[in-house]
Write a structure and sequence with these properties.
The chain is α/β, with parallel strands linked by helices. The protein has seven helices and 33 strands. α4 links the parallel β23 and β24. The longest helix has 18 residues. Bound molecules: (2S,3S,4S,5R)-3,4,5-trihydroxy-6-oxo-oxane-2-carboxylic acid. (2S,3S,4S,5R)-3,4,5-trihydroxy-6-oxo-oxane-2-carboxylic acid binds next to loops.
Length: 596
């Protein structure tokens, strides 16, 4: 734990100009919340007129003041109440044609009524805002958050007024060279308040965070800690899991923290039986309810074991792209559709690429029994030598693990994708690996690495980062970016590591409905043939412990401009963006059914 605090405080030191979001509240699904979803007024502000004056100094009377003319001569050059409306949650790109390619600032405003209550603290919690959010309440700045895919919250107990209040958020999705991700990605830079916004009511002293998981190699020892927040920090906390006969009372120290172990006989969570237990964490005035699944995951040599049983990960990669309607996915229904398709394909595993997905995806995977690879957007060519960039990546990892550390399906924390080999890159990523291990001793750590030929037919897995990982992800495009599909038949795979390898990507593009012979690129037949050759090769690789081909569904990408074929879509999906199955879907499905 100690090291985590060092990382977080380093992050705070590097950015002292704004109030930081308050430490994250765990499991908001198990709390008393008031939704601020729905219609928000917006002002599109490409020149940031509402933020800086004509000398580029921050304007103390920016749009966040929500000013109104005081008399008929008063000049106020904006008006939220007459402005357009966007839905929250939701990206702006898919809601308004003029915002389709927009990258810049949009101001969001929401009014709400609140009746103040005694002994109650109030927080505002954002599921995610892409990419930078500056949050104001009643004209006063609350703070800032950077990173488009993780939650953050601010306490507003002393800022909220009786009756009407207004929240204004300056959302900026400009891509930055020193951002995480950086300028170049292969996905759409959807801007906006893309996930739920909630007010959370908690008592004066409450259970802010907790960790309740099965110890790494055990089937019956639960390791746990609880962190209270408030003025009455040292008190009894009761943990109940009635179905497992657990009823434990522990005492927190003067910092509100306690760590403990519980022994019990449990039915373990698995894809075949995604068993969840009702868990209650009660301190004197606060009760949080959760549903937790218990399972363990470990490696021995090149094998992966779930609950002590060897498992091959039959997976698929998924972007957080909405099925059928397009845009960012956010809802339970989106998650049910995407994960339902993965199940039909025969998957027991998904790689949620390339950033933390919304909580509905994780909760649905938990209920449906689908294992999850969870990733942060340390993607391609991050600035490895910049301390602020590291602090940003580290904070995103911190928020991701904090949110999902009690979720059974998550078995792998990935610290990045296809990062080019170099000493500074390996140093940067090793620090992330260490951080993930410090925060969570129960899961495996991975990253998607690139392949490397040692002669024309032999690929050697020897990325130096592999030394620090438990499982090596490996992205390979033999037969797509690298020769024709039949090339895969003669490739020999070698690994320097006695560790499990997962093919974290392999894939080729096809436009749904385009039929031709198997050597005609973009045809469904080409893609199906690509998968046949990949499967031939995969069957021969003894150390391969899983695969997540690229990708479940076609997704929007500004890099993909070929007219009539791509039209701003990466076409490597087994489903089209409208949910139509391509031929390759059935090729992979047949293989996965054989492996079951
Ligand atoms: C990759 C990347 C992924 C791309 C994919 C592609 O290696 O990790 O983000 O979308 O290739 O389609 O080229």
């Amino acid at each position: 734990m100690k090291k985590i605090f060092i990382v977080v405080s380093l992050f705070m030191l590097l950015r002292t100009d704004f109030a930081q979001p308050y430490p994250l509240i765990q499991n908001i699904q198990g709390r008393k919340t008031i939704s601020l979803n729905g219609d928000w007024r917006i002002i599109i502000d490409p020149y940031e007129t509402g933020f800086v004056n004509y000398r580029l100094d921050e304007d103390q009377n920016g749009f966040f003041k929500n000013a109104k003319p005081k008399n008929k001569s008063d000049r106020i050059e904006y008006d939220f109440d007459k402005s357009e409306i966007l839905k929250v949650p939701g990206d702006w790109n898919s809601q308004q044609e003029k915002l389709f390619l927009y990258e810049g600032t949009v101001w969001y405003k929401k009014s709400f009524n609140y009746n103040k209550k005694n002994n109650t603290r109030l927080y505002i919690y954002f599921g995610a805002v892409n990419y930078e959010a500056i949050v104001y309440i009643n004209g006063e700045k609350l703070g800032e958050h950077i990173g488009g895919f993780t939650p953050f919250n601010f306490e507003i107990t002393n800022k909220v007024k009786e009756g009407e209040n207004f929240i204004i958020v300056k959302v900026d999705n400009k891509r930055l060279r020193n951002g995480v991700p950086t300028l170049n990605t292969d996905w759409w830079n959807y801007g906006g308040i893309t996930r739920d916004v909630n007010l959370i009511e908690v008592p004066q002293t409450f259970t802010r965070d907790y960790f309740i998981q099965l110890a790494k190699k055990s089937k019956y020892v639960i390791i746990a800690w609880v962190q209270l927040d408030g003025s009455n920090l040292s008190q009894n906390v009761n943990i109940r899991i009635p179905e497992a006969g657990i009823d434990e009372t522990v005492k927190t120290n003067d910092k509100g923290y306690t760590a403990f172990k519980i022994k019990s006989k449990l039915t373990l969570w698995s894809p075949e039986n995604p068993k969840l237990y009702d868990v209650t964490i009660a301190s004197s005035n606060d009760t949080v309810n959760d549903k937790i699944g218990f399972r363990n995951i470990e490696t021995k040599g090149t094998k992966i074991f779930l609950n002590g049983k060897e498992i091959f990960l039959r997976g698929i990669c998924i972007h957080e792209e909405a099925p059928i309607r397009s845009g960012r996915a956010y809802s339970k229904e989106d998650a049910q559709t995407l994960l339902g398709w993965a199940k039909e394909l025969g998957c027991n595993f998904v790689r949620l690429a390339h950033y933390p997905h919304n909580v509905n995806m994780i909760r649905q995977a938990e209920e449906m029994g689908i294992l999850v690879w969870s990733e942060i957007p340390v993607y391609w060519t991050i600035l490895w030598d910049d301390e602020k960039v590291f602090a940003n990546a580290s904070n995103q990892l911190n928020e991701n693990i904090t949110r999902d550390k009690n979720r059974a399906p998550v078995i792998l924390w990935s610290v990045g994708n296809e990062t080019p080999r170099s000493i500074p890159r390996t140093k940067f990523m090793k620090k992330l690996v260490d951080q993930a291990r410090d925060m969570d001793s129960t899961r495996l750590i991975t990253a998607a690495t690139e392949i490397h030929y040692i002669n024309s037919k032999t690929i050697m897995i020897d990325d130096p980062l592999g030394k620090y990982l438990d499982v090596l992800g490996c992205n390979e495009y033999i037969g797509w970016y690298d020769g024709l599909p039949a090339k895969a038949d003669s490739i020999i795979w070698k690994s320097d590591y006695d560790k499990p390898i997962v093919f974290s990507e392999l894939g080729g593009g096809a436009k749904y409905g385009l039929h031709a012979d198997s050597l005609t690129i973009w045809s469904e037949e080409f893609q199906a043939n690509f998968y046949k050759h990949q499967i031939n090769m995969i069957k021969k690789i003894a150390f391969l412990q899983g695969m997540t081909p690229w990708i479940l569904m076609d997704f929007r990408s500004p890099r993909r401009v070929l007219p009539g074929i791509q039209d701003f879509y990466n076409r490597k999906g087994l489903f089209s963006d409208k949910g139509e199955r391509k031929k390759a879907f059935y090729v992979l499905q047949t293989y996965y059914n054989l492996l079951k």
